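Incident review: delayed structure delivery

Summary: a single-chain prediction request sat in the queue longer than the usual turnaround. Root cause was a stuck worker, restarted by the on-call engineer. No data loss occurred. The affected request and its eventual output are reproduced below so the record is complete for anyone auditing the incident later.

Affected input:
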Amino acid sequence: MPDTQNGRVAVYLDFDNIVLSWYDRVHGRNSFARDRQRIAENPGDPETAARLRAAIVDVGAIIDYASSFGTLVLTRAYADWSAPINSEYRSQLVARAVDLVQLFPAAAYAKNGADIRLAVDAVEDMFRLADLTHVVIVAGDSDYVPLAQRCKRLGRYVVGIGVAGSTAKALTAACDEFASYDALPGIEPVEREQPAKRQRKGSAASAPKEEAERAAAQSLTEVDEDGELVVADDDPEIAVTGLLIRALWLSQDKDDSGWLYSSAVKQQMRRMDPSFSEKALGFRSFSDFLRSRSDVVELEESGHERLVRLKDQG
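Output delivered after worker restart:
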């Protein structure tokens, strides 16, 4: 990753996308579509206001996270700022030096208005500001995949931020790094009923190929109402274990013993899935994450070195 001490960062927020996605995350899929008319007609209604407060987006957490990559050169948010669900954010955004770009919803092309305007501005800024090192895209639509790819071709490090369950898998893969809004520091996780854990005992260590294939299929099964693949969080335990196994497979031929530096394994996992973060999974370090997968891998720690390999490789 580029040096964050001297990083020059541009942040682009598809504000409607992040706000509506978080509303659906908090209240359930398609909740905003059901509540849209009520919010527009009477946002001050006590019940409506309570639902809006429960799904408030912490813009400061997003901006603070973006600032960890370097100096924020520009920050822009794209939305219809006259809409009740967005207007309450205006003072908060202005206080954080965010430029508010007004999008008018009357025309038929309004659905993609933010996508097009944001992409055009970002590409123009990259040619206009040659010192930009990082581009942060706060959105979840697959429409931003070409933008992320273009930014990378132009030598920028691309960071994506999106809401879990509403982010296209293709966008996650197109970024150098991807963070879930749900996992940003200071964001309270949404309490959701988790499905029963599938048993990995015995199968992962003795047959890692089958485990990884199930994980690969798991990560591509959730489809949104527009038919787009999204990041599935049905069973993250299996998905992340499969990611670890595949990363070890791809790297183990570099050493006949099968032992690999854990930092190299983590780097490979991030290449395969930019959204991977051991801290988002509740672990303080990557070594702690590896220890939790002791049924799949062996970890050897000596001094400052951490070596890891698949079980039954020696």
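Verification: Confidence is low (pLDDT under 50) at residues 193-209, 211-233.
Action items: add queue-age alerting; document worker restart procedure.
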